[in-house]
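Subject: Protein entry, chain in single-letter code together with its fold tokens

Area: Proteins and the way their chains fold up in space.

Attached in line: The record itself begins immediately under this heading.
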Amino acid sequence: MVSDSTRIASIAAVALVAYVLVSIPAQKSPFLGIVFSCLFLFLFITAAAIILEWCARRTRGGSALQAAFCAGLLAVALSCFQLHWYYRSGGSHVAEAPAISERRFALIQTMGEKISTSKHDAPRVFLPAITNYLNADILTFELMKRRKGNSWAFDAHRSGDHSLHLSSVEQATHVVLFDTADPELLQRLPSTAVLPMIVQALQDHPSFRLLAKSPAATGPSTIALFERRDAFDGVEALSGFLPLEGPYPQWNLPRVRWALGEEARIRFSEAEGGASRLTFRAHSPLANQVITVLSDGVAAGSCSLPQVGQAVDCAIDLSMASGKPEIMFRFARADPSLDGGRTVLFYGIALTRR
């Protein structure tokens, strides 16, 4: 007959192996976590039954040991459980907590729906600051439930390094931003201190747009969801461009578009007018290339691409009329015999207000 100590040691060994197997993967799976939790609960119940059986076999004090053990289990369970009246504070109604929980759950679902229905095939969601109910783990689980490709969420809540947060923004397709006055922000975390700077940087970022804004679960604050613009969002090629192509992960290239010959024209689907800024990233297979930007036939500025194949970020300030403005790119160098007349490779084009 197997001894009680051997049985308990076997159960502990199985639990340890299960824990190690769950801990090894760098990307945690909520479903694997649920399986492990169920296994751990089963092993706990089995171990408790062995202990109670051992107490029952004792000729003296067995019943008292069983009662003490059960009382200890009950005390531990009650310490983890918050009764309904726990939320009553300052005369607030007892139903306040369930209402807040419903709003939190609705927020998580709204975020998951907005992100999963976006144009990005593999969303990467960054949270500069977090709360207990909305963080990277919760959002990753919500996206996995919706089976949205290889989507995941991440945060940098342990870091107060401004540059690290900005680098994380550049890696993301979506960013979830809490108001700095949100009462549920975890103020003790270093990331909360840099949140105001990240909010300002994201609002000024030409590659992101506000996708949705929802009321927070508590207080008058809001939670904003920003989405990375498509590299050619709102841009219609009128002449001188090849079709969109890519992305090409093997060359670390996003979706791109080649311009041909000496000039190319585009039209924006919508512009508010006034002081604007045209931004684009490009490289050329021709050395000492110069791109001149014309608005309404008038040169507004130029950008130099001195080295072959080296991408350059360009920004041209414009004064635009509202509506659907047209822009012309004029190239200083063109070689029809080179790669089918390809002159400049554009990584993205955007028009923003100044």
